[in-house]
Known about the structure:
Elements: H1 22-34, E1 38-42, H2 46-50, E2 63-65, H3 71-84, E3 90-96, H4 98-102, H5 105-114, E4 118-124, H6 161-166, E5 172-177, H7 181-192, E6 197-203, H8 207-210, H9 217-226, E7 233-236, E8 239-242, H10 251-255, H11 266-290
Helix pairs in contact: 1-7, 3-5
Amino acid sequence: MKLTIPGEELMGHGNLSCQGCGGSLAMRYALKALGRDTIAVIPACCWSIIDGPFPYSCLKIPVFHTAFETAASAASGVSAAMKIKGKKTTVLAWAGDGGTFDIGIQALSGAAERGDNIIYICYDNEAYMNTGIQRSSATPYGAWTTTTPAKKFKSAPKKNMVEIMVAHKIPYTATACIAYPEDFIKKIKKAKGFQGTKYIQVLAPCPTGWRYDPAKTIELSKMAVESGIYPLYEVENGIYKISRKAKNKTVKEYIKMQGRFSHLTGEVIDEMQKNVDKEWELLIRKEEFYGHTKE
């Protein structure tokens, strides 16, 4: 049987992730796609802990730990150094949603505007998980966090960071999900083939923050995609392509698996379903309008 996922493991034993951590699985797949000739830049986030205490690291590639807001700018510097040395080493900026959507967006926007040659992957667990499950702008509407408790749940929608990056006119932007590793790896390899700034956002559920059984991480991840909550698509030089068009689950089926939504009423859930349906139809129209290829 032909293997569809590279066999080499560049994430070793001794990582400090929680049981069922989507972020650790995302890193494992990412390094399988990128290979050994890669340097990772990691800001303050769950992965600055998962990697292990200095001088140890569970990753079998060079890792540069940096400040919370500087993943993209530090990666830009490393990329410039590799260019001066004449090396083709891939520079990976690896950050959580807090360090991407919020505190790191300035550095990321600057790198994208300059066209710095980096791959930026945001492992999206939809809150500041490493510091105690505080809401970020990636936290979805209705969710419980320690700063948006049940009686004051998050009332704003999730920031559409993917479309913000598309608006920067970078060569490649994509979404991915750990439940679909072949799709994730394919997109990373495609991103590696472009010059300039590339952005991939991968859904990486957090059992602790989302309040679900750690054994259900893959099932829940699939549900996010199949419900349309987290659509898989890519935008290559302005051309949209939906990676998985099946939408056969409901928002209710998805959120009932998670304690962070257990306080929501039927009326609120219905409104969430309407918003998901609206966004899904908008994505389909974008693919129809911008999905043509130039002859």
